[in-house]
Amino acid sequence: MSFAGLNDADVAAALAACTAADSFNHKAFFAKVGLASKSNDDVKKAFYVIDQDKSGFIEEDELKLFLQNFSASARALTDAETKAFLADGDKDGDGMIGVDGEDY
């Protein structure tokens, strides 16, 4: 499922740019899909889509499937990509990203 307000062509281009294993960079992806320029409210809406278990946190297993939130056929992130993404977003070191834990 695509996030509301994002251009489908931008999402497709961003997904195409990271089809190879270990090619995903979350900051570049956010910039390409336009999420980097969205309001905090829009980013929070995106957060809650990624937070599949509705715990208020994005855990490593949810982050691994990040790209599939944009397209069901997208690949899972590699362990290295997932850990790098998590390390950047986990501001308090608890192994999860809270809704206010990432500066998009």
UniProtKB/TrEMBL annotation:
GO terms for molecular function: calcium ion binding. One of its GO terms (cellular component) is cytoplasm. Keywords: Calcium, Metal-binding, Muscle protein, Repeat. SMART domains: EFh. Residues 38-73 form the EF-hand domain. Ca(2+) binds at D51, D53, S55, F57, E62, D90, D92, D94. PROSITE patterns: EF_HAND_1, EF_HAND_2. In muscle, parvalbumin is thought to be involved in relaxation after contraction. It binds two calcium ions. Belongs to the parvalbumin family. This is Parvalbumin. It comes from Hucho hucho (huchen).
